[in-house]
Amino acid sequence: MITLIALIIAIILQFAGALVAIGSIRMTKKAISWILLSVGFLLMAIQRFIEFIPYVWREWEKDVAAINTWLGIITSVLIAIGIILIRQIFDFLRKVEKQRQEADKKVLNAVIQAEEKERRRLAKDLHDGMGPLLSSAKMAISSLSQHENDNDKIKIIENADYVISEAIRSLKEISNNLSPHVLDNFGLASAIKSFASKVANMQQINVHFESNMFDFRFDYNKEVILYRVACELINNTLKHAQASNIHIQLSRHNKLVSLNYTDDGKGFEVNDILHKSHNEGMGLHNIMNRLKGIKAIVNIDSEKGKGMKVIIIVNI
């Protein structure tokens, strides 16, 4: 009785599996290997059903044995040939995956190019639009101070001149951050060094930068992403880490570029930040998403009270 029940369950499951396999033929672009395997699964289900017949009609037992023998031979041949030929399905899947990766890369490149184009446009509009207006206002204020004798008024004019000078400096800084001309003209190493120097001059933090790539250029999209990532790391340190020192090392080893970043801040639990909502861990999520697009190898190591270390490796 137990054998009969097990046989019935096996028949049901094998017919279900065979139907699923047959239904998947279209998904495999009607690959001959999958068709052979599907037919083989169907014949195995039929075999199990034929084995069930003698339980109902005993006189068919000898005929069933002969039929099952031939079905077993045919099934074995079909499955063996199907497995030999199934490589074409894996080749097809690899091809689809490669096409998907190429499509993702094209989308990423298009997004980066559109983003950088918009940054350049904004930087140009700020520089060409606001720059001359502020410069004209500064010239007018400077000219006015030369013809004014009242000390109180001179002090007001000097303050106004100082405010406009600061506005011009801030405008240049914003314009440069939107579209850093150093990156365009001199490359990644010079751009990171320039940004790090500005941060060190404006903030109470020591930024140490070293590189063997000052005369080396590579794919611009990858340069842009690594530059934005380096800036994001520095900004995160300034905002959250309460660090005194930042060390950045940018190196090239044959076809690999590595960016090593460390700070001596208060540190954090990496998993906690990565599993937070996107808004709470925006900086780290931005970094990971950017680097994922260029297939970079990333390792972030940090513990509370032990600072942070980031290693990024990119194939150029």
List the helices and strands and how they pair.
Layout: H1 2-23, H2 32-52, H3 61-85, H4 87-146, H5 151-178, H6 181-186, H7 188-202, E1 206-211, H8 220-241, E2 245-253, E3 256-263, H9 270-274, H10 282-293, E4 297-302, E5 308-315
Parallel strand pairs: 1-2
Antiparallel strand pairs: 2-3, 3-5, 4-5
Helix pairs in contact: 1-2, 2-3, 4-5, 7-8, 8-10
Characteristics:
Heat Shock Protein 90; 10 helices; elongated; five-stranded mixed beta sheet; 316 residues; single chain; alpha+beta
CATH level-two architecture of the largest domain: 2-Layer Sandwich
Strand order, sheet with most strands: 1-2-3-5-4
SS content category: alpha+beta
The separation of the N and C termini measures: 67 Å
Helix content: 55-70%
Low-confidence stretches: none
List the domain count as a whole number: 3
Order of helices and strands: HHHHHHHEHEEHHEE
Summarize this, please?
This protein is of the alpha+beta class. It is built from ten helices and five strands; from the N terminus they run αααααααβαββααββ. It has three domains: 2-85, no CATH class; 105-179; 182-316, Histidine kinase-like ATPase, C-terminal domain (Heat Shock Protein 90), CATH 3.30.565.10.
